[in-house]
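In response to the reviewer comment on reproducibility (Comment 2.3), we provide here a single inverse folding case reported in full, input and output, so that an independent group could reproduce the run without further information from us. The structure tokens appear first.
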């Protein structure tokens, strides 16, 4: 009688695990549909991924783009000098 109870617990655990897998697969499919239908631009998507304020992210992006431009100017001027 005790073994039957253990088998039921094992079966219940297996059924629960299978149900969890199915739910996770369904949720991933829904997330994928949301990503495919996302009409936001790249900057808005980046804001959602990085947990800092919008003002700080704008400042960081502007600093990095300024550094990139200055590096390009440096190498161009160096090549033609």
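Designed residues, in position order:
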């Amino acid at each position: 009688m005790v073994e039957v109870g253990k088998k039921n617990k094992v079966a219940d655990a297996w059924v629960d695990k299978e149900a969890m897998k199915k739910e996770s697969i369904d949720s991933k499919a829904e997330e994928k549909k949301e990503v495919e239908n996302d009409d936001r631009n790249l900057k808005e998507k980046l804001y959602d991924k990085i947990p800092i304020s919008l003002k700080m992210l704008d400042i960081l992006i502007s600093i990095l783009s300024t550094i990139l431009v200055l590096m390009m100017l440096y190498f161009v001027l160096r090549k033609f000098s």
